[in-house]
Specification:
By secondary structure, this protein is mainly α. The protein has 22 helices and no strands. The radius of gyration is 21 Å and the shape is globular. The relative contact order is 0.10. The mean pLDDT is 89.
């Protein structure tokens, strides 16, 4: 054990270039394993060409890819440089590289203590591979949320507003950056920048694709998001959240396991519409109490100036993005795992054994459960059907809010 401890403490593991190399290795592995036949990237790629040809972005194109496009029209400009690359392998590699570098840059420029960034990089490396393996934009989403808080902490309202608006117009999740509004010193200036960036970024695709077309696509986007919420209820690979865990366990308990496994095998499409958990149960019965509970720390005005308290608010936001969203999926947990890492390291006291147990539990069940380290039957009949990947994050979220309501954070953390 002493040898292992000395090995872990070697400067090699703390070296910045070692950590950067680790993330670049995740890029290479994610492309090399060809995890999903690049379906998600094809959705992104063709969104640009569909926009260029004035086609509806939000209808199926089964000859080109599976599933549907669920991002804002603005995203088609972001993906454009990658969409025009002829080689799919080169395009995917550069896309993954851009995502990994963007999050790396956001973490390195965050207000977290530099010594703690080592833990964040290593702790989230596997979840990073998971997200990159699906070519998911979630990597950039969490980067923008972190950048939003960092800009607010440094009184750079112009950039805070920019990252919130950009994140919202691409994948709606960016709107959670508004949770840091109370930490902003010049709220009027921030509000004006919000208005400015909203106008600029909504209008940005219009010179390329036409104002009427872009406006129509925004309307189609909002419609598709509403429909997606219904489709995700009992979905296999979606609604991996507190909401999904409760609904799926409830449905299985009332319909019986064999009937539920049939629903699970059909990716949630063959459910019994008369079942109470489908016909009557509303996620709002969980969402409203959860939001009220999560908002309680914001009543502690005397803690607002404490850097560590603000970082806990960031951790809280990163966790609820998944556990309170029906759109959460396996690869979106790069967002919440970074929140868990911040929760563990960015407090002005030493974490106890219970916290360490929760951290390890979260790493094993949340990060490693989709892998072959878990027996296939356990994954297929237990973890995936009941969204148990979300359980450790939910428990840590409950503990985090309790800590924020009872602990004193007024000891500065140097960035």
């Amino acid at each position: 054990m002493n040898k292992l401890s000395r090995l872990i403490q070697l400067p090699f593991w703390r070296n910045k270039w070692t950590q950067f190399s680790l993330w670049m290795l995740m890029v290479v592995i994610s492309v090399g394993l060809h995890m999903h036949h690049f379906n998600n990237f094809l959705i992104f790629k063709y969104s640009f060409w569909h926009t260029l040809h004035q086609l509806n972005l939000y209808v199926p194109y089964p000859d080109e890819y599976g599933d549907l496009y669920h991002y804002g029209p603005l995203f088609t400009l972001i993906i454009a440089p990658f969409a025009v690359i002829p080689s799919i392998w080169v395009a995917v590699f550069l896309w993954h590289l851009a995502l990994a570098w963007f999050l790396w840059w956001a973490i390195q420029n965050s207000t977290l203590p530099k010594k703690n960034l080592v833990f964040m990089i290593w702790f989230t490396a596997h979840e990073m591979l998971n997200a990159l393996g699906m070519s998911q934009f979630n990597v950039a989403t969490v980067a923008m949320i972190i950048l939003t808080y960092s800009a607010i902490h440094r009184n750079k309202e112009i950039w805070a507003a920019f990252w919130i608006v950009l994140g919202t117009l691409v994948k709606i999740y960016g709107i959670v950056g508004l949770a840091f509004f109370f930490f902003i010193r010049s709220k009027w200036r921030f509000s004006l920048w919000m208005v400015f960036w909203t106008i600029v970024l909504i209008a940005l695709p219009m010179p390329f694709f036409g104002a009427e077309y872009v406006a129509d696509q925004y309307a189609e986007w909002f419609k598709s998001l509403a429909e997606k919420g219904q489709e995700n209820m009992l979905s296999d690979f979606q609604n991996i959240s507190l909401l999904g865990m409760v609904r799926k366990i409830g449905y299985a308990a009332t319909a019986g396991l064999p009937a539920y496994y049939e629903v699970f095998a059909s990716a949630g499409k063959q459910f019994d519409a008369t079942n109470w958990w489908v016909s009557t149960w509303s996620d709002l019965w969980l969402i409203i109490p959860a939001i009220i509970y999560s908002a309680l720390p914001w009543l502690r005005f005397n803690q607002y100036r404490a850097h560590s308290f603000q970082l806990m608010c960031l951790a809280l936001v990163l966790m609820i993005v998944n556990i309170l969203s029906t759109g959460s999926e396996n690869s979106s947990y790069i967002i919440s795992m970074l929140g868990v890492a911040i929760w563990y390291i960015a407090v002005p006291w030493k974490r106890g054994r219970l916290d360490l147990v929760l951290l390890v539990f979260c790493f094993i069940l949340t990060s490693l459960s989709p892998t072959d380290l878990f027996p296939g039957d356990v994954r297929y009949y237990c973890i995936r059907p009941f969204a148990l990947k979300s359980l450790p994050v939910t428990i840590i979220w409950l503990k985090l809010v309790w800590e924020m309501c009872t602990k004193d954070y007024r000891e500065p953390i140097r960035s």
